[in-house]
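Hello K.,

You asked for the raw outputs rather than the summary table, so here they are, unedited. I folded two proteins back to back in the same session to keep the settings identical. This is the first:
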Amino acid sequence: MNLRTPLFAALLCLPLFACGERPQTNGTASADTTLGQKVREATDKARKEMAEGNFSISSEGGTKVEVSPTGDLLINNTPVALNDSQRALVLQYRQQMMGVAEAGIEIGVQGANLGASAAGEALKGIFSGDTNKIEERINAEAAKLEASASKICDQLPALMATQQRLAAAVPEFQPYAKMDQSDIDECRDGHVNVR
Protein backbone atom coordinates (compact mmCIF):
# COMPACT_ATOMS: atom_id res chain seq x y z
CA MET A 1 0.00 0.00 0.00
CA ASN A 2 1.32 3.41 -0.90
CA LEU A 3 0.94 5.60 2.17
CA ARG A 4 1.17 9.00 0.50
CA THR A 5 -2.41 9.29 -0.76
CA PRO A 6 -4.14 7.98 2.40
CA LEU A 7 -1.82 10.08 4.52
CA PHE A 8 -2.63 13.20 2.54
CA ALA A 9 -6.37 12.45 2.76
CA ALA A 10 -6.09 11.84 6.49
CA LEU A 11 -4.28 15.13 6.96
CA LEU A 12 -7.05 16.92 5.11
CA CYS A 13 -9.55 15.38 7.57
CA LEU A 14 -7.56 16.61 10.57
CA PRO A 15 -9.78 19.65 11.24
CA LEU A 16 -12.76 17.33 11.65
CA PHE A 17 -11.36 15.69 14.73
CA ALA A 18 -8.53 17.88 15.93
CA CYS A 19 -10.60 19.46 18.67
CA GLY A 20 -11.83 16.19 20.10
CA GLU A 21 -10.13 13.94 22.56
CA ARG A 22 -9.62 10.24 22.22
CA PRO A 23 -12.25 8.46 24.34
CA GLN A 24 -11.38 6.33 27.32
CA THR A 25 -11.44 2.64 26.46
CA ASN A 26 -12.27 1.29 29.93
CA GLY A 27 -10.43 -1.86 28.96
CA THR A 28 -12.43 -2.54 25.80
CA ALA A 29 -10.63 -3.92 22.80
CA SER A 30 -11.90 -1.27 20.39
CA ALA A 31 -11.65 2.47 21.04
CA ASP A 32 -13.25 4.84 18.57
CA THR A 33 -11.60 8.12 17.76
CA THR A 34 -13.73 11.23 18.15
CA LEU A 35 -14.57 11.04 14.45
CA GLY A 36 -15.26 7.32 14.81
CA GLN A 37 -17.64 8.06 17.69
CA LYS A 38 -19.55 10.55 15.54
CA VAL A 39 -19.77 8.05 12.70
CA ARG A 40 -20.84 5.30 15.13
CA GLU A 41 -23.59 7.52 16.54
CA ALA A 42 -24.94 8.12 13.04
CA THR A 43 -24.67 4.45 12.11
CA ASP A 44 -26.37 3.33 15.33
CA LYS A 45 -29.39 5.34 14.18
CA ALA A 46 -29.21 3.64 10.76
CA ARG A 47 -28.99 0.21 12.43
CA LYS A 48 -32.09 0.94 14.49
CA GLU A 49 -34.00 2.09 11.41
CA MET A 50 -32.93 -1.07 9.54
CA ALA A 51 -34.04 -3.33 12.37
CA GLU A 52 -37.39 -1.63 12.90
CA GLY A 53 -38.32 -0.49 9.41
CA ASN A 54 -38.73 -1.96 5.98
CA PHE A 55 -35.53 -3.05 4.29
CA SER A 56 -35.28 -1.78 0.73
CA ILE A 57 -34.14 -4.38 -1.79
CA SER A 58 -34.60 -2.54 -5.05
CA SER A 59 -36.04 0.58 -6.57
CA GLU A 60 -34.94 -0.24 -10.09
CA GLY A 61 -37.09 1.06 -12.93
CA GLY A 62 -39.34 2.88 -10.49
CA THR A 63 -40.43 -0.34 -8.78
CA LYS A 64 -39.94 -0.24 -5.03
CA VAL A 65 -39.26 -3.64 -3.41
CA GLU A 66 -39.05 -3.93 0.38
CA VAL A 67 -39.12 -6.50 3.14
CA SER A 68 -40.80 -5.68 6.44
CA PRO A 69 -39.50 -6.82 9.84
CA THR A 70 -42.35 -9.36 9.93
CA GLY A 71 -41.42 -10.89 6.57
CA ASP A 72 -43.86 -9.11 4.30
CA LEU A 73 -42.61 -8.72 0.74
CA LEU A 74 -43.85 -5.40 -0.61
CA ILE A 75 -43.72 -4.43 -4.27
CA ASN A 76 -44.70 -0.79 -4.75
CA ASN A 77 -46.12 -0.84 -1.20
CA THR A 78 -48.43 -3.76 -2.06
CA PRO A 79 -47.90 -6.94 -0.02
CA VAL A 80 -47.30 -10.14 -1.98
CA ALA A 81 -49.38 -13.07 -0.70
CA LEU A 82 -46.98 -15.48 1.04
CA ASN A 83 -47.40 -18.85 2.70
CA ASP A 84 -45.41 -19.72 5.84
CA SER A 85 -42.43 -21.26 4.01
CA GLN A 86 -42.20 -18.30 1.61
CA ARG A 87 -42.34 -15.86 4.53
CA ALA A 88 -39.55 -17.80 6.26
CA LEU A 89 -37.41 -17.41 3.11
CA VAL A 90 -38.19 -13.69 2.97
CA LEU A 91 -37.15 -13.32 6.61
CA GLN A 92 -33.95 -15.30 6.01
CA TYR A 93 -33.13 -13.10 3.01
CA ARG A 94 -33.81 -9.96 5.04
CA GLN A 95 -31.57 -11.19 7.86
CA GLN A 96 -28.73 -11.95 5.45
CA MET A 97 -29.09 -8.57 3.70
CA MET A 98 -28.99 -6.88 7.09
CA GLY A 99 -25.84 -8.85 7.96
CA VAL A 100 -24.13 -7.49 4.85
CA ALA A 101 -25.34 -3.95 5.64
CA GLU A 102 -24.18 -4.26 9.27
CA ALA A 103 -20.73 -5.37 8.13
CA GLY A 104 -20.57 -2.40 5.76
CA ILE A 105 -21.57 -0.01 8.52
CA GLU A 106 -18.89 -1.38 10.84
CA ILE A 107 -16.27 -1.03 8.12
CA GLY A 108 -17.30 2.61 7.74
CA VAL A 109 -16.68 3.20 11.45
CA GLN A 110 -13.34 1.39 11.26
CA GLY A 111 -12.42 3.50 8.22
CA ALA A 112 -13.19 6.71 10.08
CA ASN A 113 -11.05 5.53 12.99
CA LEU A 114 -8.23 4.58 10.63
CA GLY A 115 -8.34 7.99 8.95
CA ALA A 116 -8.19 9.77 12.28
CA SER A 117 -5.39 7.53 13.54
CA ALA A 118 -3.44 7.91 10.30
CA ALA A 119 -3.62 11.69 10.55
CA GLY A 120 -2.42 11.59 14.14
CA GLU A 121 0.39 9.21 13.24
CA ALA A 122 1.35 11.43 10.29
CA LEU A 123 1.67 14.41 12.59
CA LYS A 124 3.82 12.39 14.96
CA GLY A 125 5.96 11.37 12.01
CA ILE A 126 6.38 14.95 10.86
CA PHE A 127 7.60 16.04 14.27
CA SER A 128 9.67 12.97 15.07
CA GLY A 129 11.01 12.23 11.60
CA ASP A 130 10.19 8.55 12.20
CA THR A 131 7.91 7.95 9.22
CA ASN A 132 8.91 4.32 8.50
CA LYS A 133 7.54 2.91 11.75
CA ILE A 134 4.44 5.05 11.44
CA GLU A 135 3.85 3.77 7.93
CA GLU A 136 4.17 0.20 9.21
CA ARG A 137 1.59 0.82 11.94
CA ILE A 138 -0.85 2.44 9.54
CA ASN A 139 -0.38 -0.34 7.00
CA ALA A 140 -1.07 -2.91 9.72
CA GLU A 141 -4.31 -1.14 10.62
CA ALA A 142 -5.27 -0.87 6.95
CA ALA A 143 -4.70 -4.61 6.56
CA LYS A 144 -7.13 -5.22 9.45
CA LEU A 145 -9.68 -3.05 7.67
CA GLU A 146 -9.21 -5.03 4.45
CA ALA A 147 -9.72 -8.26 6.38
CA SER A 148 -12.96 -6.89 7.82
CA ALA A 149 -14.11 -5.89 4.34
CA SER A 150 -13.48 -9.39 3.04
CA LYS A 151 -16.01 -10.66 5.58
CA ILE A 152 -18.72 -9.00 3.48
CA CYS A 153 -17.63 -11.08 0.52
CA ASP A 154 -17.76 -14.21 2.66
CA GLN A 155 -21.48 -13.59 3.29
CA LEU A 156 -22.43 -13.20 -0.37
CA PRO A 157 -22.59 -16.87 -1.51
CA ALA A 158 -25.18 -17.71 1.17
CA LEU A 159 -27.10 -14.53 0.36
CA MET A 160 -27.15 -15.39 -3.34
CA ALA A 161 -28.35 -18.95 -2.60
CA THR A 162 -31.19 -17.60 -0.45
CA GLN A 163 -32.06 -15.03 -3.11
CA GLN A 164 -32.27 -17.79 -5.74
CA ARG A 165 -34.46 -19.98 -3.49
CA LEU A 166 -36.70 -16.99 -2.78
CA ALA A 167 -37.00 -16.17 -6.50
CA ALA A 168 -37.96 -19.78 -7.21
CA ALA A 169 -40.52 -19.84 -4.39
CA VAL A 170 -42.04 -16.38 -5.02
CA PRO A 171 -42.39 -15.62 -8.74
CA GLU A 172 -43.17 -11.95 -8.03
CA PHE A 173 -39.68 -11.58 -6.56
CA GLN A 174 -37.86 -13.18 -9.51
CA PRO A 175 -37.31 -9.95 -11.53
CA TYR A 176 -35.48 -8.45 -8.52
CA ALA A 177 -33.17 -11.40 -7.82
CA LYS A 178 -30.23 -10.02 -9.78
CA MET A 179 -27.25 -11.03 -7.72
CA ASP A 180 -24.94 -13.45 -9.53
CA GLN A 181 -21.45 -14.90 -9.25
CA SER A 182 -19.92 -11.80 -10.84
CA ASP A 183 -21.06 -9.77 -7.79
CA ILE A 184 -19.20 -12.15 -5.50
CA ASP A 185 -16.13 -12.08 -7.76
CA GLU A 186 -16.16 -8.26 -7.88
CA CYS A 187 -16.44 -8.14 -4.11
CA ARG A 188 -13.41 -10.38 -3.74
CA ASP A 189 -11.56 -8.11 -6.18
CA GLY A 190 -12.33 -5.16 -3.91
CA HIS A 191 -15.50 -3.79 -5.46
CA VAL A 192 -18.57 -4.50 -3.31
CA ASN A 193 -21.79 -4.09 -5.32
CA VAL A 194 -24.72 -6.10 -3.96
CA ARG A 195 -27.87 -5.84 -6.04
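The second followed immediately with the same parameters:
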Amino acid sequence: MSKRAVLEVIALDAEDAIAAQAGGADRLELVTDMAADGLTPSVAAFAAIRAAVGIDLRVMLRLADGFAAGDVDRLVRVAGEMRAAGADQFVLGFLDAEGGVDLAAVERVIAELDGCSWTFHRAIDHTADRDALRKQLADLPGLDTYLTAGSAEGVATGLPTLLAEAARAGEPGYEQQLLVGGGLELTHVPELLAAGVDAFHIGGAARPGGWAHPVSPKAVANWRRVLDAG
Protein backbone atom coordinates (compact mmCIF):
# COMPACT_ATOMS: atom_id res chain seq x y z
CA MET A 1 0.00 0.00 0.00
CA SER A 2 1.41 3.40 -0.95
CA LYS A 3 2.05 5.84 1.85
CA ARG A 4 -0.51 8.60 2.09
CA ALA A 5 0.21 12.01 0.61
CA VAL A 6 1.47 14.69 2.99
CA LEU A 7 -0.95 17.54 3.68
CA GLU A 8 0.72 20.66 5.08
CA VAL A 9 -1.44 23.55 6.30
CA ILE A 10 -0.39 27.11 7.18
CA ALA A 11 -1.08 27.90 10.84
CA LEU A 12 -0.89 31.33 12.48
CA ASP A 13 -1.76 30.28 16.03
CA ALA A 14 -2.79 27.38 18.27
CA GLU A 15 -6.45 27.62 17.20
CA ASP A 16 -5.41 27.09 13.56
CA ALA A 17 -3.10 24.26 14.55
CA ILE A 18 -5.75 22.36 16.49
CA ALA A 19 -8.26 22.76 13.64
CA ALA A 20 -5.75 21.65 11.00
CA GLN A 21 -4.74 18.59 13.01
CA ALA A 22 -8.41 17.71 13.58
CA GLY A 23 -9.01 17.92 9.82
CA GLY A 24 -6.20 15.49 9.04
CA ALA A 25 -3.17 17.69 8.36
CA ASP A 26 0.17 15.87 8.64
CA ARG A 27 2.27 18.97 9.15
CA LEU A 28 1.95 22.69 9.75
CA GLU A 29 3.90 25.61 8.34
CA LEU A 30 4.09 28.23 11.09
CA VAL A 31 4.11 31.87 10.02
CA THR A 32 2.84 35.27 10.97
CA ASP A 33 1.78 38.25 8.83
CA MET A 34 0.26 36.76 5.69
CA ALA A 35 0.00 40.30 4.28
CA ALA A 36 3.78 39.91 3.77
CA ASP A 37 3.33 36.33 2.51
CA GLY A 38 4.35 34.77 5.81
CA LEU A 39 7.12 35.83 8.19
CA THR A 40 8.78 34.18 11.20
CA PRO A 41 6.34 33.72 14.08
CA SER A 42 7.28 34.60 17.65
CA VAL A 43 8.92 32.01 19.86
CA ALA A 44 5.85 32.29 22.12
CA ALA A 45 3.53 31.45 19.19
CA PHE A 46 5.71 28.44 18.30
CA ALA A 47 5.68 27.24 21.92
CA ALA A 48 1.88 27.59 22.16
CA ILE A 49 1.37 25.64 18.93
CA ARG A 50 3.90 22.97 19.92
CA ALA A 51 2.01 22.51 23.19
CA ALA A 52 -1.36 22.31 21.38
CA VAL A 53 -0.68 19.65 18.70
CA GLY A 54 1.38 16.55 18.12
CA ILE A 55 2.04 16.81 14.36
CA ASP A 56 5.21 18.08 12.68
CA LEU A 57 5.81 21.83 12.63
CA ARG A 58 7.94 23.70 10.11
CA VAL A 59 8.85 27.22 11.23
CA MET A 60 9.30 29.99 8.65
CA LEU A 61 12.62 31.85 8.80
CA ARG A 62 11.86 35.09 6.94
CA LEU A 63 12.06 38.60 8.34
CA ALA A 64 10.57 40.74 5.56
CA ASP A 65 8.43 40.52 2.45
CA GLY A 66 10.31 39.47 -0.67
CA PHE A 67 13.14 36.97 -1.11
CA ALA A 68 16.21 38.90 -0.02
CA ALA A 69 17.76 37.52 3.18
CA GLY A 70 18.05 40.98 4.74
CA ASP A 71 19.67 40.97 8.18
CA VAL A 72 21.39 37.56 8.16
CA ASP A 73 22.81 38.04 11.68
CA ARG A 74 19.28 38.49 12.96
CA LEU A 75 18.03 35.50 10.97
CA VAL A 76 20.75 33.33 12.52
CA ARG A 77 19.82 34.62 15.98
CA VAL A 78 16.12 33.90 15.41
CA ALA A 79 16.93 30.40 14.13
CA GLY A 80 18.97 29.77 17.28
CA GLU A 81 16.11 30.97 19.49
CA MET A 82 13.65 28.68 17.69
CA ARG A 83 16.02 25.72 18.04
CA ALA A 84 16.41 26.48 21.75
CA ALA A 85 12.59 26.51 22.08
CA GLY A 86 12.42 23.03 20.54
CA ALA A 87 11.78 23.74 16.84
CA ASP A 88 13.30 21.00 14.71
CA GLN A 89 11.96 21.69 11.18
CA PHE A 90 12.17 24.92 9.20
CA VAL A 91 11.23 26.76 6.00
CA LEU A 92 13.54 29.27 4.29
CA GLY A 93 14.82 30.49 0.94
CA PHE A 94 16.82 33.54 -0.16
CA LEU A 95 17.63 35.01 -3.56
CA ASP A 96 20.27 37.57 -4.50
CA ALA A 97 19.66 40.72 -6.55
CA GLU A 98 20.13 38.80 -9.82
CA GLY A 99 17.48 36.22 -8.90
CA GLY A 100 19.95 33.45 -8.16
CA VAL A 101 20.08 31.61 -4.86
CA ASP A 102 21.82 33.57 -2.06
CA LEU A 103 23.92 30.59 -1.10
CA ALA A 104 25.95 32.47 1.51
CA ALA A 105 22.82 33.48 3.43
CA VAL A 106 21.26 30.01 3.16
CA GLU A 107 24.45 28.34 4.38
CA ARG A 108 24.81 30.70 7.35
CA VAL A 109 21.24 30.11 8.48
CA ILE A 110 21.28 26.33 8.08
CA ALA A 111 24.58 26.11 9.97
CA GLU A 112 22.49 27.23 12.96
CA LEU A 113 19.90 24.49 12.29
CA ASP A 114 22.39 21.74 13.03
CA GLY A 115 21.13 19.22 10.47
CA CYS A 116 17.40 19.83 11.05
CA SER A 117 15.03 19.13 8.14
CA TRP A 118 14.04 22.18 6.12
CA THR A 119 12.01 23.25 3.09
CA PHE A 120 13.31 25.66 0.45
CA HIS A 121 10.16 27.69 -0.15
CA ARG A 122 8.62 29.47 -3.12
CA ALA A 123 11.70 31.60 -3.71
CA ILE A 124 12.36 28.83 -6.26
CA ASP A 125 9.37 30.13 -8.24
CA HIS A 126 11.04 33.56 -8.49
CA THR A 127 14.55 32.43 -9.40
CA ALA A 128 16.15 33.06 -12.79
CA ASP A 129 17.09 29.38 -13.22
CA ARG A 130 15.28 26.66 -11.24
CA ASP A 131 17.58 23.86 -12.34
CA ALA A 132 20.73 25.80 -11.40
CA LEU A 133 19.25 26.65 -8.00
CA ARG A 134 18.47 22.99 -7.29
CA LYS A 135 21.97 21.88 -8.30
CA GLN A 136 23.54 24.54 -6.06
CA LEU A 137 21.47 23.47 -3.06
CA ALA A 138 21.59 19.72 -3.78
CA ASP A 139 24.07 18.72 -1.08
CA LEU A 140 23.07 21.06 1.73
CA PRO A 141 22.38 19.23 5.01
CA GLY A 142 18.74 18.91 6.02
CA LEU A 143 17.15 20.09 2.75
CA ASP A 144 14.40 17.56 2.07
CA THR A 145 11.59 19.57 0.42
CA TYR A 146 10.86 22.25 -2.19
CA LEU A 147 7.63 24.21 -1.73
CA THR A 148 6.71 25.30 -5.24
CA ALA A 149 3.83 26.23 -7.51
CA GLY A 150 6.02 25.74 -10.57
CA SER A 151 5.57 29.43 -11.37
CA ALA A 152 5.47 32.79 -9.59
CA GLU A 153 1.88 33.05 -10.88
CA GLY A 154 0.70 29.91 -9.10
CA VAL A 155 -0.05 26.26 -9.78
CA ALA A 156 -2.46 26.86 -12.67
CA THR A 157 0.43 28.40 -14.64
CA GLY A 158 3.17 26.23 -13.16
CA LEU A 159 1.58 22.82 -13.71
CA PRO A 160 3.75 21.84 -16.72
CA THR A 161 6.89 22.72 -14.75
CA LEU A 162 5.70 20.73 -11.72
CA LEU A 163 4.96 17.69 -13.88
CA ALA A 164 8.36 17.93 -15.59
CA GLU A 165 10.16 18.19 -12.23
CA ALA A 166 8.15 15.31 -10.76
CA ALA A 167 9.31 13.20 -13.72
CA ARG A 168 12.94 13.93 -12.77
CA ALA A 169 12.55 12.71 -9.17
CA GLY A 170 15.73 11.04 -7.96
CA GLU A 171 18.05 12.78 -10.43
CA PRO A 172 20.90 14.94 -9.01
CA GLY A 173 19.24 18.07 -7.60
CA TYR A 174 15.81 16.40 -7.74
CA GLU A 175 16.01 14.05 -4.76
CA GLN A 176 13.96 16.34 -2.50
CA GLN A 177 10.21 15.99 -2.06
CA LEU A 178 8.05 18.30 -4.18
CA LEU A 179 5.56 20.06 -1.89
CA VAL A 180 3.06 21.73 -4.21
CA GLY A 181 1.43 24.94 -3.00
CA GLY A 182 0.58 28.44 -4.13
CA GLY A 183 -2.83 28.80 -5.74
CA LEU A 184 -3.28 25.03 -5.45
CA GLU A 185 -6.86 23.89 -6.08
CA LEU A 186 -8.52 20.54 -5.56
CA THR A 187 -8.92 20.20 -9.33
CA HIS A 188 -5.11 20.14 -9.71
CA VAL A 189 -4.68 17.22 -7.32
CA PRO A 190 -5.51 14.17 -9.49
CA GLU A 191 -3.00 15.08 -12.21
CA LEU A 192 -0.29 15.83 -9.64
CA LEU A 193 -0.92 12.58 -7.75
CA ALA A 194 -0.79 10.65 -11.03
CA ALA A 195 2.60 12.25 -11.75
CA GLY A 196 3.95 11.01 -8.42
CA VAL A 197 3.63 14.23 -6.40
CA ASP A 198 2.94 13.20 -2.80
CA ALA A 199 2.94 16.42 -0.77
CA PHE A 200 0.51 19.33 -0.87
CA HIS A 201 0.48 22.70 0.91
CA ILE A 202 -2.60 24.85 1.54
CA GLY A 203 -3.14 28.23 3.15
CA GLY A 204 -6.19 30.14 1.96
CA ALA A 205 -7.84 26.89 0.86
CA ALA A 206 -8.05 25.86 4.52
CA ARG A 207 -9.90 29.10 5.35
CA PRO A 208 -13.11 29.49 3.35
CA GLY A 209 -13.80 32.69 5.29
CA GLY A 210 -10.48 34.28 4.31
CA TRP A 211 -7.32 35.03 6.31
CA ALA A 212 -9.25 36.97 8.96
CA HIS A 213 -10.83 33.65 9.97
CA PRO A 214 -9.25 30.55 11.49
CA VAL A 215 -8.52 27.28 9.72
CA SER A 216 -11.65 25.22 9.06
CA PRO A 217 -11.31 21.56 10.13
CA LYS A 218 -14.01 20.74 7.57
CA ALA A 219 -12.06 22.35 4.71
CA VAL A 220 -8.88 20.49 5.73
CA ALA A 221 -10.83 17.21 6.01
CA ASN A 222 -12.14 17.73 2.49
CA TRP A 223 -8.57 18.01 1.17
CA ARG A 224 -7.57 14.97 3.20
CA ARG A 225 -10.38 12.97 1.59
CA VAL A 226 -9.39 13.96 -1.94
CA LEU A 227 -5.70 13.16 -1.31
CA ASP A 228 -6.53 9.80 0.25
CA ALA A 229 -8.94 8.91 -2.56
CA GLY A 230 -6.24 9.64 -5.15
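Residues 205 and 219 are 7 Å apart (CA to CA).

Happy to rerun anything if the numbers look odd on your end.

Regards,
P.
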